[in-house]
Design goal:
7-stranded antiparallel beta sheet, alpha/beta, 6-stranded mixed beta sheet, globular
């Protein structure tokens, strides 16, 4: 067995796997205990129920045999669905740290949060490769490169499991888009799977010894992954040696036959044995379609990590650690440290940053994102106990320098312009809340809402008995002393209607993800305009907001012109980027309008973008002096961003993805959407995803993979290569040539230079080290390579093999920043 082609040895951290692999927790002693338990079990009442969940987030327990019910929790970036919990930066920000140690700390802290809540199994990390920027779950994943993703994955999982919680690597495999994820097959050739999409999963099994693997929702090459025998038995079990539990994603087995689920490798049907049912398994046993040993093997796979990780011996309530606070200061500190290292400085024209605290006296902060907790939506969403907004963080530090920070709103939530009825001085709208989605019957509750801006999944304060399938009607009037043309904007998930003076202005009365609609209306001063807003919520997210702006006034830009610096906070959030749907490549309409209006100012503008990947920026990026890519920075993100803006933290994040100039430039442009409606998308780019594809196509990019600026400057010198054939040590000297301490990521790329019998990328990331240096300090950086650096997957041999010939070894600070290089000759 060889390691994945792109999972390279770095320093002393990773050893080659050229032998039959078994997880440390799958010992002979554990196996003996597992078999003893199985021998005591009743087939119908105990073994069969263990093949599925007992409730939404729990497995089946057997009190007679002291087998505990295991508690699971969503949690790629925080413990979800268990009340409030520390909210960490998104997975893609973690990858942007390029820091193995902090990935381990991230996982370790998550495990503490899990134990504080009695959670045995963390449903994370998500490690699917970033193909295109629109995928709704990119924010959960670790970028476009299999080596970076694999090493982030390994250290995350080790941090979780070495702290007493089982991790679940997901979504196996090729869940690279969220649109129609249950229907569209990802058609990927075998070489591409092994070189690009498998490495993070294989490393999770063989390096990190993960206890659980979760299937994806999508089919792979026409077969749903949850029933793909080749994937689950031939690859996962036989080739990789996985001994843990394979579970379905929640209801991902919906489109598969029970017989296929039972025969082809599913151990645990989550959440509640809906599709691989006890009755179906009993029938199959009676008809000799499966044997009892098939059931025993599923139970073994479930019990091995349970016993090997200590859950069985801890007993029923042993996972709960009351000594760990639910709002853990250590977790909060980890969230802050990760954010500090993963935020990427992309642009810094004329050294606009850090803020010149001697010259800047007034800062204008704009954008609703400045005041909000921002995260991706869906199962990766976490509700924190407390957050630091960008506005709060900026004000906190600016105060230290007597800098005035003013929040300038382009859109208003009409705090002082909504009243409950004509002529009334009582502010707000009358809200009638119904326990049904149809506004029928008597309201379950009635209250005055001062303005309309709700995220009921984050703050579950709906005054009804339901959290889903409810509706609301707000009524009142709009009144302002300022006449003019106003633009009214309403947005929601699911449906909404807006009436002004009984005229239906916006009609989106249907289920669907968050979207916005706007209408302009001429408004007279001190005149009551009747307002009615209807809202329905069917399931999933629950958002509604209602804003306006006066379009014929220069107040907004005038406020910016009167400032010394503008900080514009814009992008996406959990309303419009998350699980279950893709987002557009462009910014949301309201955010496009905001940044285009901001760019009319004469004052220098620094942009802070929150999003899970790239967005179209040609219309506004050239007008910015500075640009920070904040991803989703977690509950402490406002502090980290402010620290970077004012130079208290030197930015060191590097892009884990390539930022294209146009969506059409992306190598997967013609192979992402199911354009012909046949429910299949062929990955025609093959291994040439991300920077590999841009290099092949010789296309310019907005910002290359691995790119990120610092307030320090660095030099690379003294490239040395030693060793024999494929066992090579590369060293160089990194020097901080500035007067400011900082960190730089030395990136090593290798590429075949002619003579190959198979097409190879121009270059591939084969190693990296993040190095911290004081002003003027130098360090020797050493990276070790083995044969995996020079191998490709041979589909005829079903294995990786060395591709002999001349290779260029390149050291630099991004995929397009060559500092040092040397050619070497590799033989078999």
């Amino acid at each position: 067995m060889t390691t994945p082609k792109n999972f390279i040895l770095l320093a002393f951290l990773f050893l080659p796997f050229t032998f039959s692999f078994a997880q440390k927790w799958a010992t002979p002693e554990v196996e003996k205990r597992v078999n003893e338990l199985i021998s005591q079990m009743d087939l119908e009442t105990e073994k069969l129920p263990l093949t599925g969940g007992a409730a939404w987030m729990n497995t089946f327990g057997i009190e007679r045999l002291h087998i505990p019910q295991l508690n699971t929790a969503d949690g790629p970036q925080g413990i979800g669905a268990n009340g409030n919990a520390p909210a960490y930066p998104a997975g893609i920000l973690l990858a942007a740290t390029w820091n193995r140690e902090i990935a381990y700390k991230y996982g370790h802290s998550l495990a503490n949060d899990a134990k504080a809540r009695g959670i045995h199994i963390l449903l994370g990390p998500g490690v699917n490769i970033y193909r295109a920027p629109m995928c709704g779950r990119n924010f959960e994943y670790f970028g476009e490169d299999p080596l970076l993703a694999a090493q982030t994955t390994v250290n995350y999982i080790k941090g979780v499991q070495e702290n007493g919680v089982m991790a679940t690597v997901k979504h196996f495999v090729a869940n690279n888009q969220e649109y129609a994820r249950n229907k569209v097959s990802s058609d990927v050739d075998e070489r591409t799977l092994n070189e690009i999409y498998f490495p993070a999963f294989k490393a999770a099994v063989q390096e990190a010894e993960v206890g659980a693997v979760m299937s994806s929702y999508n089919p792979l090459n026409g077969e749903y992954t949850v029933t793909d025998k080749w994937l689950l038995i031939d690859v996962l079990r036989k080739q990789w040696g996985f001994k843990g539990v394979h579970m379905s994603d929640w209801r991902s087995a919906e489109f598969s036959a029970c017989e296929d689920l039972a025969k082809n490798g599913l151990d645990l049907d989550m959440p509640g044995r809906e599709f691989m049912t006890v009755d179906c398994l009993k029938r199959m046993l009676a008809e000799n379609k499966i044997s009892e040993e098939t059931i025993n093997e599923k139970v073994r796979n479930f019990l091995r990590p349970m016993i090997g990780m200590g859950f069985y011996d801890k007993g029923k309530n042993g996972q709960l650690d009351k000594s760990i606070p639910s709002d853990n200061p250590q977790s909060n500190q980890t969230a802050l440290e990760v954010a500090r290292e993963g935020i990427v400085l992309l642009k810094n024209t004329d050294n606009i940053l850090p803020v010149n605290t001697k010259k800047v006296r007034t800062i204008a902060v704009v954008g609703q994102n400045a005041t909000r907790f921002l995260c991706g939506g869906g199962s990766g969403k976490t509700s924190p106990f407390h957050t630091i907004s960008m506005l709060g963080g900026i004000r906190s530090i600016a105060t230290q320098y007597n800098i005035n920070v003013k929040f300038v709103e382009e859109y208003s939530h009409m705090h002082n312009e909504l009243f409950i009825e004509k002529g009334s001085k009582t502010a707000g709208l009358k809200g009638e809340y119904f326990d049904n989605p149809d506004l029928k019957g008597k309201p379950a509750a009635t209250q005055i809402d001062p303005y309309i801006d709700y995220d009921w999944k984050a703050v579950p304060n709906v005054p009804t008995s339901r959290r889903e399938n409810f509706s609301v009607r707000w009524t009142g009037v709009f009144r302002t002393p300022n006449a003019g043309i106003y633009e009214f904007t309403i947005g929601g998930d699911d449906g909404y209607r807006l009436y002004i003076d009984d005229e239906l202005i916006c009609d989106e009365w249907k289920e669907g993800g968050f979207r916005t609609r706007s209408r302009k209306k001429t408004i007279k001063a001190n005149t009551d305009y009747k307002i009615q807003i209807d809202y329905l919520q069917k399931g999933g997210e629950a958002y509604i907001e209602f804003t306006n702006k006066k379009t014929d006034a220069n107040y907004f830009v005038d406020q910016l012109n009167a400032s010394d610096l503008v900080i514009a906070c814009f992008g996406y959030n959990s309303k419009n980027e998350g699980e279950g749907a893709d987002r557009p490549f462009e910014l949301p309409e309201t955010e496009q309008k905001l940044i285009n209006e901001v760019c009319k100012t004469k004052t220098p503008v620094v942009g802070i973008v929150t999003v899970g990947g790239n967005v179209e920026m040609q219309s506004w990026e050239p007008k910015l002096k500075g640009l920070l890519w904040a991803w989703y920075p977690g509950q402490e993100g406002g502090t980290a961003i402010a620290e970077i803006l004012f130079g208290k933290i030197n930015p060191s994040g590097k892009l884990p993805v390539t930022f294209e100039k146009r969506w059409a430039d992306n190598p997967v442009y013609n192979s992402y959407y199911d354009s012909d409606g046949d429910k299949h998308v062929k990955y025609t780019e093959g291994i040439f995803v991300g920077y590999r594809g841009y290099d092949k196509l010789k296309r310019e990019v907005q910002y290359p993979f691995g790119f990120g600026l610092s307030y320090s400057t660095f030099e690379l010198n003294d490239l040395k290569i030693s060793g024999k054939n494929t066992d090579i040590t590369i060293s160089c000297t990194l020097k901080n040539t500035s007067k400011k301490a900082g960190a730089q990521v030395v990136q090593l790329y290798a590429g075949k230079r002619g003579g190959s019998t198979i097409e190879r990328p121009l270059q591939e990331l084969k190693g990296f080290e993040k190095v911290y240096l004081k002003p003027g300090e130098s360090k020797v950086v050493t990276i070790k390579l083995n044969k995996d650096a020079f191998s490709y997957y041979n589909i005829n041999k079903k294995d990786f093999e060395v591709d002999p010939g001349e290779y260029e070894i390149v050291l630099g600070f991004s995929s397009r920043d060559k500092k040092l290089s040397e050619n070497i000759l590799i033989t078999r």
